[in-house]
């Protein structure tokens, strides 16, 4: 579809390249938006209202990982970025699993291993921490002084596979990377945490669901442990051509990377493992408290799952995908149906008091890593509740938090993604 310029309805500029949405906020990659191939663009925080640059945090490679076979796609060491907590948060840990799409074929994975999502050789030495990872109370009121960690994503399978392809020299070791990273963090003090939160966005949001109960098991029973999945509620939905594009993608990932044995038995004991890679089939059975942040009209799913070019050869959805204001009445009805499926998918999950969610009616994808959507003047709200406040209320048991927005176009606080020709 060519190179496109991506704009927000709120004042923000980013790019959409090769059918993949990608954002940088305050010189930060927002990996929720990534698919397979991306071009990095810098966001000008001065122009768009932020004068404070975010904290830059250095990369640490896990030296013990090689002996465990816990390596990136190309065989290099995995890594993480850690900023130590302080004050009242010195013994609290927030662990974020990086997102960035999946690779589902040998060809895609060979390409990916020459990028930062397949090799630590290409990872930035420093990355900015903002949004949920910010170290400023004014930007992140509940978690700013915790130990905050971002585990880099370099396996292409949501930290869940365990296989390899010798001919292509590919290592699918996501499960081992996750385990090696947890062991490393425990040795750095996480084993003594009095409270912990596992989070992730997009592909990382899938991983935070898959590993939630596993994460809980790392700590003694008295530790407060919960999980957060942002933009991870990928649905097994029918696309505009009547096919299931997302099921095909996830099926390829599960088979290629031997994900099946590492999926929750609560699901695989009754369903095909491919079905169990979809978080909506897992969330109600997760024992650990879990919070979902998701846009009801998830931009990534609209672009890549509901109306991909393969399902829309005549481009009938092209204008609608560029700008939700250009969607026809039948197209809006289709998207309202998708929202209905999302709300149906969380119905049983929501019956448990321990769980929570914030489902807003925005055309967006990933809202916890971006400062403008996490906690800032003009950030998205449902009623009088923003995302950061909602997550904090749920985590600290200040209030039961299950918030669903009214249908599009009622929400005027959305930071919708709008696409325009260069």
Automatic annotation (TrEMBL):
InterPro entries per the UniProt record, alphabetical: PAE/NOTUM (IPR004963)
GO CC term (a single one): plant-type cell wall
Cited function: Hydrolyzes acetyl esters in homogalacturonan regions of pectin. In type I primary cell wall, galacturonic acid residues of pectin can be acetylated at the O-2 and O-3 positions. Decreasing the degree of acetylation of pectin gels in vitro alters their physical properties.
EC number annotated for this UniProt entry: 3.1.1.-
Pfam (any one): PAE
One annotated GO molecular function: pectin acetylesterase activity
Protein name: Pectin acetylesterase
GO BP, sorted A to Z: cell wall organization
This protein's UniProt keywords: Cell wall, Cell wall biogenesis/degradation, Hydrolase, Secreted
Biological classification of the source: Eukaryota, Viridiplantae, Streptophyta, Embryophyta, Tracheophyta
């Amino acid at each position: 579809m060519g190179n496109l310029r991506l704009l927000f309805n709120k004042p923000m500029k980013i790019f959409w390249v090769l059918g993949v949405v990608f954002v940088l906020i305050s010189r930060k990659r927002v990996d929720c938006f990534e698919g397979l191939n991306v071009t990095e663009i810098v966001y000008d925080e001065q122009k768009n209202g932020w004068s404070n640059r975010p904290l830059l945090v250095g990369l640490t490679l896990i030296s013990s990982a090689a002996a465990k076979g816990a390596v990136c796609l190309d065989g290099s060491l995995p890594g993480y970025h850690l900023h130590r907590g302080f004050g009242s948060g010195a013994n609290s840990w927030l662990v974020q699993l990086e997102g960035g799409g999946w690779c589902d074929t040998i060809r895609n994975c060979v390409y990916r291993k020459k990028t930062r999502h397949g090799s630590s050789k290409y990872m930035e030495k420093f990355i900015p921490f903002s949004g949920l990872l910010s170290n400023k109370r004014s930007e992140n009121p509940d978690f700013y002084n915790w130990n905050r960690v971002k585990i880099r994503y370099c396996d292409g399978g949501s930290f869940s596979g365990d296989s390899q392809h010798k001919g292509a020299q590919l290592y699918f070791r996501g499960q081992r990377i996750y385990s090696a990273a947890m062991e490393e963090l425990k040795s750095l003090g996480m084993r003594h945490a009095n409270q912990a939160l596992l989070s992730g966005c997009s592909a990382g949001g899938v991983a935070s669901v898959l590993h939630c109960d596993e994460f809980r098991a790392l700590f003694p029973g008295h530790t407060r442990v919960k999980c957060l999945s942002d933009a991870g509620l990928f649905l097994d939905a029918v696309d505009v051509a009547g096919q299931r594009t997302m099921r095909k993608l996830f099926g390829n990932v599960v088979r290629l990377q031997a994900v099946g044995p590492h999926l929750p038995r609560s699901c695989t004991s009754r369903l095909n493992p491919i079905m169990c890679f979809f978080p909506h089939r897992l969330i109600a059975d997760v024992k650990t408290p879990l919070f979902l942040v998701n846009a009801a009209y998830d931009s990534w799913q609209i672009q890549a799952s509901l109306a991909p070019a393969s399902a829309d050869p005549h481009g009938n959805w092209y204008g609608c995908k560029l700008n939700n204001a250009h969607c026809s009445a039948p197209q809006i009805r289709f998207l309202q149906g998708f929202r209905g499926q999302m709300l149906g998918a969380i119905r049983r999950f929501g019956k448990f008091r321990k769980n929570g969610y914030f489902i807003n009616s925005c055309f967006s994808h990933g809202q916890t890593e971006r400062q403008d959507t996490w906690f800032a003047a003009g950030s998205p709200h449902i009623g009088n509740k923003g995302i950061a406040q909602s997550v904090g209320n749920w985590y600290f048991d200040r209030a039961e938090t299950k918030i669903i927005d009214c249908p599009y176009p009622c929400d005027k606080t959305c930071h919708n993604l709008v696409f325009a020709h260069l």
